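quick one: S-adenosylmethionine bound model?
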Amino acid sequence: MSFHDPLVDRFASHPGWGCFMARPEPLPADGDPIALVGVDVPLTDLKRSETTDNRIWNDIARRINAYPFRTSDQCSEKHYRDVFEFLRLNNGVVRRVVECGVFHGGLSVELAGCAVAFDLAIDLVDVNPGALLAAWHRIARTFPEALDRVRLFLGELPNYVQAVAADPDFDAALVHHDGSHRFPVVMRDLASLYYVHKRVHALIIQDTHLRHSDPSNFCFVDAAVAAVFGIDPRYQPVGTTFVTTTTPAGYRRGEKHNVYFQAGRPEGMLIPIAENRFLYPHPLIHRLDDFVQCPARQREAA
Ligand SMILES: C[S@@+](CC[C@H](N)C(=O)[O-])C[C@H]1O[C@@H](n2cnc3c(N)ncnc32)[C@H](O)[C@@H]1O
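yep, here:
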């Protein structure tokens, strides 16, 4: 394995790496869950509209907006709304949502609301155990009745696929990808879905419009989609599409670690799995293990 993600190296020594986590203990009422994440970012205060023509969305939005702490929710409101619409339209078809990359739980909390409304199971997957805990405690404050439907998995998507591949309850899944944005990592994540593709209904992948100022960041999510599904996958755009190349608030020209959004490219792509072909990996050449950066520690020890 030539490319090692420093973020994965940071967390893969955790004893629970590559496994589902035990149900977390409650936090004290005044404890802010994002303190558990251990990553400093500007907080965004993203509110969800409570006045749309859909009562279920408005109820979910109202409860998300009542959360007493600030967070950094990383997708546009349109992206969050499009994910909701997909789940609403596929009510009874999609039975499980796998969210890869949770951070402060911006989407996770919405998925928890959808889990109750549309009878879904939710698996949250992240390399950072603090992010999983923060998302859990945000759900606990916002949709406590959803907690029995939520599981936390510490590791990357290929680790998760290894864990559920033999589980018949893993079926009719929507996979939402907003984890690493580095080409080699996203490519491995998407390739791992090949090994369970008959049980994945659709993939929604975020930040397919994003570029990073530092070339060694390898931030090419859309290119990883092309590597796995070809340059012309069947997809629907999700979220915001900017008419011109756009930089986020706080952008300073020439500084490293800036990002920009490509003109005319969608924030996210909805990829129905049955309507697409995996051009990579090759069923006779690759094995799921080829895409696992750091195997589960318990598997290693066994
Ligand atoms: C952009 S944030 C996710 C934001 C979230 N979807 C939201 O609605 O605000 C990215 C998250 O992906 C996690 N991450 C980074 N690399 C990962 C990987 N290889 N596998 C799984 N999660 C990863 C980070 O720890 C972080 O929590």
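The mean pLDDT is 93.
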